[in-house]
């Protein structure tokens, strides 16, 4: 199979893509390393192996765009410009967390950059994201889009069908980004959905513009997402893009879980060989865009950034008990 050309991605995006790949990988690997210390008391869902899609979205979206995410939201939050230290402080339950230390890993928000929140409930942010699209249309916010990140499992929720139908009927500026990693917890796609059904084709039947691509190959991923996103921005109605990818670690937690038997070691190794980070590094070096030492220098910079962010997050105090019931209702919010 011919590889999509690296030239499909504008060269001035290469550094940003590589930095985002490194950032997501480094922070999540460090979360996995530190999690057994017992200081992060919330469940955490890692997206190691799935960095390609959010990295591409990071160079296609702008601060004025809006986004909502799932329980596996670290990468989406960072890709939208979320604050790294605030994210880590939230996971540690500290006062400087992006949700005030109340929500933990699955409830991240940063309205400053248009990241409107994530949730633990599968499919729960889909109608919220469509509501954001409706608000943009009502406000006549030209060229702004609302992005709804979802997994293949959310396609099985009624909320998806209702929200997608509403988005199509109202011609809303919404892009559904489906990261298909083949599994919902321990259940494979084969036991949850008809084997001859493709998510992108299902979306097209609902009236959504749709396309499917390889989430681990960044040029191909970029070439799949960019045209659909441009159509949504141009007011041509909602779209769904399905990107194939694969999570390396367990559904929830820092460990590997191939010993459980719901997926094979051979399958895991085949997908790991298609690591989006390594593949992009190789393409940049093979085509003379970057040298190995340039990549290493950038990665060390990101590693230092991540270590400093962990130190800053852990140095913060826990919220006072008196804060437990503040910011619960709208009238409690500042501003």
What's the short version?
The protein has eleven helices and seven strands.
Structural overview:
By secondary structure, the chain is of the alpha/beta class. It is built from eleven helices and seven strands. A five-stranded parallel beta sheet has the order 1-2-3-7-6, sandwiched between helices. Strand 4 and strand 5 (187-188) form a beta hairpin. Helix 1 (14-34) crosses helix 11. The longest helix is centred in the C-terminal third of the chain and has 23 residues, at 292-314. The model has no long low-confidence stretch (mean pLDDT 95).
Number of helices: 11
Give the biggest sheet.
5 strands, parallel
Report the principal-axis shape. Answer: globular
Category from helices, strands and their pairing: alpha/beta
Mean residue pLDDT: 95
Sequence-ordered SSE layout with sheet pairings:
Layout: H1 14-34, H2 52-60, E1 66-68, H3 74-79, H4 84-91, H5 126-138, E2 146-151, H6 158-170, E3 174-180, E4 183-184, E5 187-188, H7 199-205, E6 209-214, H8 218-233, E7 239-244, H9 265-272, H10 276-286, H11 292-314
Parallel strand pairs: 1-2, 2-3, 3-7, 6-7
Antiparallel strand pairs: 4-5
